[in-house]
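Now read these lines:
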Amino acid sequence: AVLNRIYFAKESRARGYKKLLEAAKQSSVPIDFVPQAKLNDLANTREHQGIAAALSPVEYASVEDCLATCGPTATLLLLDQVQHARNVGLMIRSAVGAGAAGVLLSTRSSALLDDTVVRASAGAVFRIPIAPCPKLIDTIAKLRDADFWIFGLDGEGDTNLFEVDWPERVALIVGNESSGIRPGLRKKCDGLIRIPMANSLDSLNVAVAAGIGLFQIASKRG
């Protein structure tokens, strides 16, 4: 089984608590500290000793695994703190359909792979490498070393999505449902891309926007 996240009750004094916490930190497993009542709900029992783990139904890849699947022309989808599992599943399905080489997920304040994601993707999660990333800024540095250009989907972007001359290797970032791409990641982008909107609309659902972006890249490449 693959760990998505370990939950520690703030009030816990369980034996081995500190050792498990340190092991989780060293292995970069996401950690949440929650009230005892919240942990009771997550574990569906009071007999949990103050610690519970959420497991992924899908085996994760590493960033290096994703890069290994990339040919000279490749697209990667990066999800920055997308919090709704259904949106994650829909975007993974779009990535598979558009021929993307992999999906990279930020692990902090993000929805990771669970049964809801699997259902929303209609099983597409099993057909593409998906890598959790504790620090997307570090991941972007690895992608640059692999000759990827970084583009962010942003409603205030200065470039029209349908006018971009896409390079051979593209990493497309989409952000949180409410706040979009974090400022630090925006600064790392080679370009911020907007989807032109009619009738005074200012935004789209993040999964819809990601699908439009991915298939536009694919269509430009023939």
The two ends are 39 Å apart (CA to CA). The chain has a mean pLDDT of 90.
